Amino acid sequence: MKSFLLSLFFFIQFGIGYCQIELKINKVRLNNSIQKLSTYGKNEAGGSDRVAYSEYDREARKYIKDLMIKAGLEVSTDFAGNIIGKKAGLNPALKPIAFGSHIDEVPNGGDYDGPVGSLSAIEVVQTLSENNWPTRHPLEVIIFTNEEGGVIGSRALAGQLSNEALKIKSSSGLTQYEGIKAVGGNPDRISELKRNSGDIAAFLELHIEQGGNLDREGIDIGVVEGIVAIEWYEFTFKGLANHAGTTPMDMRKDPMLPASRLVLAVNEIVNSFDGAQVATVGKIEAFPGAGNVIPGEVKLNVEIRDLSSDKIHQVYQAIEKKAEILAQESGTTVSINHIEVASKPALANPEIQKVIESSAKELGLSSKYLPSGAGHDSQEIAKFAPIGMIFIPSKNGISHSPQEYSSPEDISNGANVLLHTILALDQKLSSNN
Ligand SMILES: [Zn+2]
Q1: How far is the CA of 207 from the centre of ligand 1 (A)?
Q2: DSSP string of 33-75, one letter each residue
Q3: pLDDT, tens digit, for every residue of 156-196?
Q4: Which of 95, 106, 114 is nearest to 154 (CA)?
Q5: Best CATH choice for the domain 15-227+345-432 from the list 3.40.50.740, 3.40.1060.10, 3.40.630.10, 2.60.300.12
Q6: Is 246 in contact with 306 (CB distance < 8 Å)?
Q7: Domain 229-342 classified CATH 3.30.70.360?
Q8: What CA–CA distance (Å, rounded) separates 344 from 380?
C-alpha cells in the first residue's frame, strides 16, 4: 500500500512534465546573494581578493553556511574544510546526487568564477524546499575548499591530496595545512575523506565558461563534454654563443632562429587539425640572455590541451618533427623534455550531458556541446563519480579579472538548467536501480 501511494505521489508530482518545468529558481534572490557574496573581499580595483583561507574567505563561508541552513540543508565542514550541506531524499538507500562549486577567488579575481555555481546550488535546494518538492535521492551541496589554489577540497575527496601538497603555501600566506585548520577542517584526518566509486550517484557543477564561445555565438548554455588534458613540452635548441658584433652572419649557429620559427609553426600545426585543441608557446628564454650575445641556447615551453590524449600526441608529434627539421636547417640541435601536467582528460558522463541538453531545451534555452579548457573541481570528482558541467556565457570570455561578468539572466538560466537536470537525473537514476 505504501509503495502504491508513493508511486501515485510520484505520478502526480513528476509524471506531468509540464508541472515540473514550471518549477523555477528565484532569479532576484539568486542574483542578490551573488552580489552580497561579492562584498566579501572587494578591493579598490573592483576585483575580489577573497583568496582561500583569508579572513574574507572565512567571513564569506559563514554567510554561505547561513544560506545553506535557511535552504533546509544540514550543514557541516569536512576534514578538508569543504562545506557540506545534506538534504534527505525519499529513498535513503539511494546514493546522493551532489552539486556545488567554490567561493574562493584568485587574487584580484572576479565575482562569478565559483560563486555562480555555489549560490545556484544553494538556490536550487531553497527552491525545492519552499515548494515542498521532494527528491528520491538525497541531495548534497558541496562548496569546495581552495579551488583556485590547486583544487584542494575536491582532490581530498578523490583521495589525491598528499601530505606534501599540504605543505605548499597558498595565496593567503598560510600553508594548505594551516589554511584547512583555519576554516574548521582537520588536515591530519584528510585521508579518511576519500570517496569511492558508487558513493555519489552523480555530480553536477554550474560554472561560467571563462572562454568566449557562448558569448560570441549568443548561446545560453554550454553542455561540457569534459575537462581537457594538459601537456607541456620544453624544447631546447642549442647552438653556439658568440659575440653579436664580430661574428659574421654566415658563421652563426643561432638557436633563436629555429626557436622563433617553431613558435609560428606551433600555431600553424595546431590549426591544421580539425577540432577544438589548443597549443600555446607562453614562455621563451634565451641564454645567456644579453643584448650583445648570440644566444647559445633557447628554451621554449609548448603547452597543448585537448579532450583527447591521442589528439594531443598527434599534434605533439607534428611539432616535434618540425622542430627537428628547423634545428637541422639552422645547424643547431634540439632536445625535448616532456613535463606532465594533467595528462588525463576528465570526461563528462554522456548520459548526464544528454540530460543537461534536454533540460535546456525544455526551458526554451539554446545550447551547444563544448570542452572546458580550464580546470575545475569536477575533474577530481570525475575520478570516482559520473559528472556533468553546465556553462553559462562569460562576457567577452574574460575571467580571473575584475572585468569578469555574467548577466543575471544568464545566471538564472544556468541555475534553472541545474535544477531541472537534478530533477531529471533523480528520476532517471532511481528508475535504473
Ligand atoms: Zn572556478
Answers
A1: 7
A2: HHHHHHTTTB-TTS-B---TTSHHHHHHHHHHHHHHHHTT-EE
A3: 999 999 999 999 999 999 999 999 999 999 999 999 999 99
A4: 114
A5: 3.40.630.10
A6: no
A7: yes
A8: 11
Q: What percent of the chain has pLDDT over 70?
A: 95
Q: What are the sequence ranges of the domains in the chain?
A: 15-227+345-432, 229-342
Closest CA to 301 of 269, 255, 271, 339: 339
Q: Are strands 242-243 and 83-87 parallel, antiparallel or unpaired?
A: unpaired
Cβ contact 370:364 at 8 Å: no
Distance, CA of 169 to chain centre: 21
At 247, give phi and psi (nearest 5°). Answer: -90, 115
pLDDT, tens digit, for every residue of 364-423?
999 999 999 999 999 999 999 999 999 999 999 999 999 999 999 999 999 999 999 999
Convert 169-195 to b/e letters by CB count within 10 Å (16 or more is b): ebbbebbbbbbbbbbbbebeebeebeb
83 near 153, Cβ under 8 Å?
Answer: no
Å from CA of 359 to ligand 1 middle = 23
Ligand 1 centroid from CA 325, angstroms = 41
From ligand 1's centre to the CA of 148, what distance in Å?
A: 7
Determine the distance separating the centroid of ligand 1 and the alpha carbon of 147, expressed in angstroms.
7
Q: How far is the CA of 69 from the centre of ligand 1 (A)?
A: 23
Residue range 95-141, pLDDT digits in tens: 999 999 999 999 999 999 999 999 999 999 999 999 999 999 999 99
pLDDT at residue 12 greater than cutoff 90 = no
All residues at 6 or more sequence positions from 235 whose CB lies less than 8 Å from its CB, including other chains: 259, 262, 299, 300, 301, 302, 323, 334, 335, 336
Tell how far the Cα of 71 is from the centroid of ligand 1, in angstroms.
Answer: 23
Q: How many whole angstroms separate alpha carbon 106 and alpha carbon 400?
A: 6
